[in-house]
Amino acid sequence: MRFLGISILAASFALVSAQNKTLTGKFDCLAAGAYTLCQNQWGISAGVGSQNSTLLSASGNDISWRTDWTWANGPNSVKTYANVLHNTAKGIQLGNIKTAPTSWDWTYLSESQGIRADVSYDIWTGVPQSGDPATSASSYEIMIWLSGLGGIQPVGSQILSGVQIAGHSWNLWKGPNANWQVLSFVSANGEIRDFNADLKEFFDYLVKNQGVASTQFLQAIQTGTEPFVGSASLLINNFNVSVS
Ligand SMILES: *[C@@H]1O[C@H](CO)[C@@H](O)[C@H](O)[C@H]1NC(C)=O
Ligand SMILES: *[C@@H]1O[C@H](CO)[C@@H](O)[C@H](O)[C@H]1NC(C)=O
Ligand SMILES: *[C@@H]1O[C@H](CO)[C@@H](O)[C@H](O)[C@H]1NC(C)=O
């Protein structure tokens, strides 16, 4: 009885404390419902500042979180990729995906003058069924930029403009990074703060028009922000994605 009482107490405490929990460390991560929220401050040796990410709520397939950051120096260097990664939306070949609906409603609660940052999906595919992002298992990194402020650019060079996918117009950038290819769709008409799409439309486009093999496995879907310099408070009111 005593053990039971203690474990129930511990379980309810964990549930409450996970809400609004703030991550401050360089590579801190937090289990957050269907997702994992991570600080991923991989590039901070190029700058001076700090970043904190706060889980606001996680329920079913929905997540809400906030990242506060301030970075100076290294204006052309990404400092971090504060992000959420879906724990199970992966492990399926692109050609076998029937639907991949996603919704992302976000805003800047505050942003400094001259902010340089993107708000983006980072989607990873490869030959093996599973593989961590940015590893030897990665073949493609597919980015979707819903915002890119301050004149920042994706990896590589722009190869197309005005590509129509999921009701929006995109400029497509392409280039190599380490052992994988980066394909970045950058919104051609400014910020998209309320994004609703089927990611299958992007996958189908890449298979049909950009030589991506339909046998590539989806290995990870992440969404977050890459700050370069400035300071901001980015609020994700709600994000979700599912793949079947
Ligand atoms: C978490 O933060 C939100 C928004 O700031 C607030 O409305 C909510 O009450 C907080 N929840 C907890 C458990 O502190
Ligand atoms: C992050 O948290 C630390 C420790 O609480 C604080 O000193 C720092 O100012 C915070 N940074 C931002 C950008 O909010
Ligand atoms: C995602 O969130 C939107 C907006 O709240 C909701 O309409 C939609 O049903 C959700 N979709 C999934 C796949 O969870």
UniProtKB/TrEMBL annotation:
GO BP term, example: polysaccharide catabolic process
Key words of the record: Carbohydrate metabolism, Glycosidase, Hydrolase, Polysaccharide degradation, Signal
InterPro entries: ConA-like_dom_sf, GH11/12, GH12
GO MF annotation, one: cellulase activity
Signal sequence extent: 1-18
Top-level taxon: Eukaryota
Pfam families reported for this sequence: Glyco_hydro_12
Protein family according to the UniProt entry: Belongs to the glycosyl hydrolase 12 (cellulase H) family.
Family matches, as PANTHER family: BLR1656 PROTEIN, XYLOGLUCAN-SPECIFIC ENDO-BETA-1,4-GLUCANASE A
Protein name, as recorded: Glycoside hydrolase family 12 protein
Origin species: Cerrena zonata
